[in-house]
Specification:
Number of helices: 2
Radius of gyration: 14 Å
Number of domains: 1
Order of helices and strands: HH
Shape: elongated
Helix content: over 70%
């Protein structure tokens, strides 16, 4: 993988982690019930994929 590809992969990872942080904050402050659970699960999934992208960008 060349340097430019690693850069874009790392940006995707950072973006997914930022989106996860926003989603979990929004879910905890503004929602409740099933919506809160679904948004929290989506945030967790984004966080996991962000971690995977970040890990592959340093290989």
């Amino acid at each position: 993988m060349d340097a430019m590809t690693k850069m874009w992969v790392s940006f995707i990872g950072i973006g997914l982690m930022a989106l996860a942080a926003f989603l979990i904050t929004f879910a905890r402050v503004k929602t409740k019930g099933v919506t809160k659970a679904l948004l929290s699960i989506a945030a967790f999934i984004f966080l996991v994929f962000g971690f995977i992208y970040g890990f592959f960008s340093i290989l």
